[in-house]
Structures are given as C-alpha cells and as structure tokens.
Amino acid sequence: MPSIRTTRTKPPPEGFEDIEDILEDYARKMRDAENETHEGKRKAESVWPIMRISHARSRYIYDLYYKREAISRELYDWLLKEKYADANLIAKWKRPGYEKLCCVRCIQSRDMNYQGSTCICRVPKAALKKGTVVECQHCGCRGCAAQD
Hints:
mainly alpha; 2 domains; 4 helices; 0% strand; globular
C-alpha cells in the first residue's frame, strides 16, 4: 500500500500574524455560507454568498499589497500559493477596465447567451434603460463595469 502524500508547506512568512485574525473571520464566514440552507433558492443563488466572501477576501489581500503596501512580496506570494486569494481575479484587477470585476467567469464569453459577449453585470449602467435591475446569474453581482 503506497504511503499517503502530504504537502508540507513552509511556515507563513513574517507579517502573517498581523492579518491572521481577519483571514480567520473570512474563513468562519465561508464555513457559515457553505453550511447555510439552500431551500427555496435557485441552484445558482446558493453559491452567491460563497463567491462574495471569496471576492472580499481576495480584494482585502489585493488592497494590502497593491494599495496600502502593508505586506511584503514574500507574504503576498505565499497567500496566493496557499489559496487565500484568487490569483486570476487579482491579475484581472490590475488591468485597466477590470478594476471592479466581480468574478473571472463574468468576462468569459463561452457561458453567455450571445456568442462573443460578456455578462450583463459588465454593461455600464448608463447604457441600460432607467429602472433596469441588473443581476448576474453566475455570481449575483449588480454591476461591476469600470464606468459605474
């Protein structure tokens, strides 16, 4: 019988203990969202709270490193490697026009109703009719276009 492989990561870099409490709060919120009852909700709606918490945690780490410069590059890389933040989403936030992107799935054209288009939440509110309520069916976003 083969031995069980376990990944042994290095201990967290210096500065992790400063943000560990906040990351634990996000983990607690994530567990609560995962254990929440899904009765009476559409299939896609049950995932929305999880995606919002994941987005908020990724945005927190992004702001710490790029906006406030409060953490080191070593700690930032370690957090991405340990999946505390979504590296693909952060990579999109660094590009112009994607600063407020809610999830990577909203810019993929393959899952949309019209070929070659993006999600409805990416349409600027100025381009929509007055009183139109926009809600993404994938993540529940109500608008993440850069012009909003």
